[in-house]
Design goal:
Elements (H helix, E strand, L loop, with lengths): L2 H7 L4 E3 L19 E2 L7 H8 L4 E3 L2 E7 L6 E2 L2 E2 L2 H4 L1 E9 L2 E11 L3 H10 L3 E6 L9 E10 L1 H13 L20 H8 L4 E3 L2 E7 L4 E3 L2 E3 L8 E10 L2 E10 L4 H10 L3 E6 L5 E2 L3 E10 H12 L8
Helix pairs in contact: 2-5, 4-5, 6-8, 7-8
Length: 313
């Protein structure tokens, strides 16, 4: 069943919107959109925790499980990429009519794509996108978006079995305080226009769009928590420099103005694609990369954001 039908079926039950936060940071800046329902108590969350072998980040009724590729050492232009910069897989569940909707994004090596996909499809889940985010990275990584609706424990088991065909770590690392951000974060906040957060040593921003996003006849709100906000990440590389990546969330008429703004400011565009199947308005996700003076790059990103219908505090 398509996600459009799953969402349409939940209109009567949807009572309030919630976001997916992680601890110690707010994971709502990295997730895709959900509309929450009034039946969270019907989900046996502990059983899902047991299937995944980890605790979720919880916001309202949305439970989000992180699957970072901490097993990989990925380098790009001499930069060793932190998992929180571009390798953070995740799965999120939202209650709906005593069952659940699931969406997520899995980080995979090329050889892992089809084994993982086969398990997901056999278990009744839907693949909504497979693509790259980066160029020139070694080893190359790919990103598989998934969706589904039904018994949450069964879906969790399917996802875990699928991940087991890859080398994704199924035992979480012990929690640790994130390393300090060696950047002028106050100035970055001022330029980007929202407050960033330290996500595992990466300074991360989520810049919401102003216009509503709808799927299956329902408004996806809030827009940031489940991935329809601009995501901008800075990983310090020394001497005030940073590697940047993330994605802009764009309508069709914004795509080329944003490309032009990024290129004029020395920022490479590395991917342009969809994440969902039937959202309104149609959205495109544009990934980027650069490693340069952090303040200079922030100004370039702001110039690109100014070409979008995005909020600024």
């Amino acid at each position: 069943m398509r996600l459009k039908n799953w969402l349409a079926a939940s209109i009567v039950a949807a009572a309030s919107a919630s976001s997916a936060n992680a601890q110690p940071i707010d994971w709502s800046i990295f997730t895709e959109p959900f509309i929450s329902s009034a039946h969270a108590q019907a989900i046996e969350w502990q059983k899902i925790d047991e299937v995944f072998g980890r605790k979720p980040a919880v916001s309202g009724e949305v439970h989000r499980y992180g699957f970072p590729r901490s097993d990989l050492t990925v380098t790009l232009d001499g930069v060793t990429i932190k998992p929180s910069l571009a390798l953070g897989g995740w799965i999120a569940f939202m209650p709906m009519h005593g069952e659940a909707m699931v969406m997520g994004d899995l980080v995979l090596l090329e050889t892992e794509i089809n084994p993982v996909m086969a398990k997901l499809v056999a278990g009744g889940l839907e693949i909504t996108a497979v693509h790259n985010h980066l160029l020139r990275a070694s080893p190359a990584t790919f990103y598989m978006h998934v969706g589904g609706h039904g018994d949450p424990v069964k879906m969790a088991s399917t996802i875990r079995d699928a991940l087991a065909t890859s080398k994704t770590p199924l035992t979480p690392l012990a929690a640790a305080a994130p390393p300090a951000i060696d950047l002028d974060t106050a100035q970055l906040d001022q330029i980007i226009g929202v407050k960033g957060q330290n996500n595992g040593g990466v300074y991360a921003f989520a810049v919401p769009r102003r216009d509503p996003v709808n799927q299956g006849g329902m408004q996806l709100a809030p827009v940031g928590p489940m991935g329809v906000a601009q995501a901008i990440n800075f990983q310090p590389t020394g001497g005030g420099k940073a590697a940047i990546t993330g994605d802009f969330v764009l309508t069709g008429d914004e795509v080329n103005p944003v490309i032009k703004a990024l290129k004029e400011n020395g920022i490479d565009v590395t991917a342009l694609h969809s994440h969902m199947l039937d959202e309104q308005p149609r959205l495109f996700f544009m990934h980027f990369w650069a490693n340069d003076d952090a303040i200079k790059l922030a100004k370039g990103l702001r110039a690109a954001l100014d070409k979008t219908a995005s909020t600024k505090s």
